[in-house]
Amino acid sequence: MYKHFIRPLLFSLDPERVHHLSFWAIGLLSKLGFSKVFRSLYVISDPRLEREVFGLKFKNPVGLAAGFDKDAKLYNELSDFGFGFIEIGTLTPKPQDGNPKKRLFRLKKDQAIINRMGFNNKGVFEAVENLKKEHRVLVGGNIGKNKLTSNSDAKLDYLICFDALFEYVDYFVVNVSSPNTPGLRELQDKEPLTGLLMELKKENTKIAAKVNQGKEKPILLKIAPDLSDEQLMDIIEIVAATKIDGVIATNTTISREGLVSPLVETEEKGGLSGKPLRKRSTEVVRFLAEKSDKAFPIIAVGGILGPEEAMEKLDAGADLIQLWTGFVYEGPSLVKRINKAILEKSS
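Below the sequence we write its predicted structure tokens.
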């Protein structure tokens, strides 16, 4: 139904407008009592789907990636579509509008999206207010820096977000890999990244001792797919040195290789997600898993538009997977189809 009726209607409208319209509709339908209907259609509960990763128990390994519920408005409602976890953000200390519109583009022929949103969000403290209600699902907090914050002062932005969210999220994701904030990817270099993660680890220990009986929150690093093998080896060394809990591979790419959509679409600046990212993101997952001897958990995201791509990521060494563009193109049934494929393989 989604692909034949709902998607054509939505795809006839501006992508960002559709995002806001979808949020409004999901929120309204949930308030009208449709949550039970959604859960009956899309949620699969089975002990064989459960995963314990970095100390957390996930109902299933399929999550929603950051960027969809930026301000933590609908994490419970979105879990009704079968997700095992929801990642909010990317959040920054101060509210910011992001980059000028138009900034979100569909590449239908490539089953892809280009975005240059630029960390548009209402600020971490508004998200905290939204997170104070009871959670029906595990929630990750994806944190970044404000656009006007220099890289030399970036640590403070990440610490502000970390402190504010600590009591309200189950794990953290350090986003230094978005291509849409000028200079942000420079923080992936070995020295600044090590310093940033060490600061967050210290803060983790300090806050946990005060408010969480010494239990620290998992910290993950989200990396770009455009890193070289040498840079990926640096990531492995950084994870070992800082003792963070895992990696999310990967963010969007600046590559435009192999696209078939018209140039007027493919030449738009921003990060590319969707089907064209499938191969590279899987390569990064496999490289990290093999070269580290599976020393840390990996959440795979990038180009998952069906069960085949999901199983490919898991076979390459991922512990969990996340959807974003696939959810837009395939609809909520994708989550159920992937979970069913995992069950079939485990039987």
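Residues 2-346 form a domain with the TIM Barrel fold (CATH 3.20.20.70).
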